[in-house]
Amino acid sequence: MPARETAPATPARSRLRLSIGAAVVLGLVVLSGAVGLGIMRGQAQPSQTVQIAAEEGPEDVVAGGELYVHVLGQVEHPGLYVLESDARVVDALAAAGGTLDDADLQAVNLARLLSDGEQLVVPVIGAAAESGGSSAVGDGLIDLNNADQAELETLPRIGPAIAQRIIEWRETNGRFGSVDDLLAVSGIGEKLLAGIRDLVRV
To answer: In the beta sheet, which residues pair with residue 144?
Structure first.
């Protein structure tokens, strides 16, 4: 029995198949686009940004602080000066126009930090020796590097023996770099140092 021949597709049927295929493809494209747009909208929701002002810390207060220092003695312009909170003696002397030729700078610690309300006195050369030392220069504290034995003995619990050791220590080792260096002197411990710490300087 002879095979049945399939009739060739008519142009109208071919167009119909093409239209259905195109519609399916177009539908998938639109669906994919809609899903993608929905995802993008979900990810792109705008968020509100709130700026919080930083609180001032203690360092901000300190940085803007001021000191009132009364400068007297052998300076060009004695008077009351307003300085920065971290100012030192050298800054106060500079504000007062510098020192005079007969100023005894060995009796003044130029590197010392100043305190508010302080009276800084720059003595004339020889004045410290005449008064028996430098305990009354600038801030009323006893200078460990210049005080004699009699001055040192005015400190609490410092007798003749320890006062002599302090003098011997600085003669052997040079100037005291800090008040804590007193711990290197025989007979001075943490407890004794705590009792005189606020009464001396270097």
So the answer is: none
Residue 121, beta-bridge partner list: 72
Backbone angles phi, psi at 124, to 5 degrees: -80, 155
List the structure tokens of 158.
């410092």
Nearest Cα neighbor of 71 from 41, 96, 108, 103 is: 96
Q: Are 69 and 118 in contact (CB under 8 A)?
A: yes
111, 110, 113, 114: which is closest to 81 by C-alpha? 114
Q: Are 128 and 137 in contact (CB under 8 A)?
A: yes
Q: What does the alpha-carbon distance between residue 149 and residue 131 come to, in Å, rounded to a whole number? A: 13
In the structure encoding, which two tokens stand for residue 71, read together? 């400068």
What average pLDDT does the segment 150-158 reach? 88
- Could you tell me the pTM of the whole model? 0.38
Structure letter (DSSP) for residue 5: P
Report the pLDDT value the prediction gives residue 166, as an integer from 0 to 100: 93
Host H or E run for residue 20: helix 11-43
Contact 17, 24 (CB under 8 A): no
Phi, psi of 126 (to 5 degrees): 100, -20
Give the whole-angstrom CA distance, residue 188 versus residue 164: 12
